[in-house]
Design a protein that fits this description.
The protein folds into 2 domains: about 240 residues, Bira Bifunctional Protein, Domain 2 (BirA Bifunctional Protein, domain 2, 2-Layer Sandwich); about 90 residues, Rossmann fold. Helix content is about 40%, strand content about 20%. Strands 1-5-6-11-10-9-7-8 form an 8-stranded mixed beta sheet. The protein has a 5-stranded mixed beta sheet with strand order 13-12-14-15-16, sandwiched between helices. Strand 3 and strand 4 form a beta hairpin. Helix 2 packs across helix 4 and helix 5 packs parallel to helix 9. The two termini are about 45 Å apart. It binds adenosine-5'-triphosphate and magnesium ion. Adenosine-5'-triphosphate binds next to strand 6, strand 10, strand 11 and helix 11.
Length: about 425
Amino acid sequence: MITLPKGTKDVLPENSYRWQFVERVARETAKTFNVREIRTPMFEHTEVFSRGVGETTDIVNKEMYTFLDKGGRSITLKPEGTAGVVRAFVESGLYAAALPLKTYYITPCFRYERPQAGRLREFHQFGVEFFGAESAGIDAEVILLAKTFLDNLGVKNVTLYINSIGCKECRKEYHKALKEYLKANYDGLCDLCKDRFDKNPMRILDCKNDSCKKITENAPSILDYLCDDCKAHFEQVKKLLTLSGVEYKINPKIVRGLDYYTKTVFEFVSENIGAQGTVLGGGRYDGLVAEFGGGKVPGIGFAAGIERLLLLLESTGEIKNEDGLTVYVAPMGDDARIKAFELVSMLRKSGVIADTDYMNRGIKAQFKYADKLGARFVAVIGSDELSRGAVKLKNMLSGEEKEVPFQELAEFLK
Ligand code: ATP
Ligand code: MG
């Protein structure tokens, strides 16, 4: 038997309604915020991600699916959504369009990670990217969109953590203070963090390694180093969130940690799904569009992991399955079988969810099959029914039976 590659999963027919539910809620929520969909390729030139995600991140350092194509180009499967969208934004000259431009995507992502619950090698994200607005209002709107999405899903017990990582200017002072603090414990840092110490010390705050976590426990807080502009921006975001009734906690350890990430960063975290508790993360990236040659256009966005959301929804409640079959038409005999074929075609034209037998099963086996499918009604056609031009319609829940003429069946079932 040929099996799945490690870290990937099939979505089988009995489960796809869960995915469709999350995707539907994502699209509907985006729509109410006037956000339109953008689709970018599943693979890009590797440079898109090494630049757009950053050389010092886990993603670029060790998680990318990178290969040479037959033309010798270095290609990478998208490990996240933002970089490709920014590339498209610049390449299509969208910065010259009406701003802010508000986009969303639903996409598979690929990362070579150690698979475990909530951590896969192919996973899926719903994300948004907003371009062109500098004001704190758009930060609050993006966070509110995320919150509304989670509420609309029925996700409970998630905490919103927010932080500001300032701008290049305030970070200079902060890096100095942070490195001063970390220096004393340098030997206790993991190898990756030793490497980060010079390249990008803020990422150390985000390390999952226990020893690093311990060391950073009492590290200086970026919030004490914000410049006046960044401080005012953060105050305004908090004010707008409070005004919108969005509860949050401040966590100065949340970093996106790249040069072009600025000011607001945030995460929604659940306690219910184990170690991989971050279901949604986002932030402002005022320097990223420029990194792609698109000039000084600010941006902000988030990405939510769909697998983690599904885990969370499973742990707190059921998603309603609306896939159910309305009517199963059960023929007895060859003439009835032809009538059944005609009848289901007619029903489907009227929008009724209908199915019939193609396995030449006896009537008992057909009822059993219809039951498995969760059919609400079974319409039996035997020779009697054929001659009377009607079906014997059984309500599978109440057991009630009733004769309904062929022509009235669609109307009756709707
Ligand atoms: P983590 O700290 O869990 O590794 P991350 O910082 O790498 O997360 P992001 O790059 O911010 O994650 O991606 C946004 C979201 O995508 C995460 O919050 C999570 O819900 C989801 N996600 C990230 N990596 C994976 C993965 N390997 N498998 C499943 N979901 C993932
Ligand atoms: Mg990760």
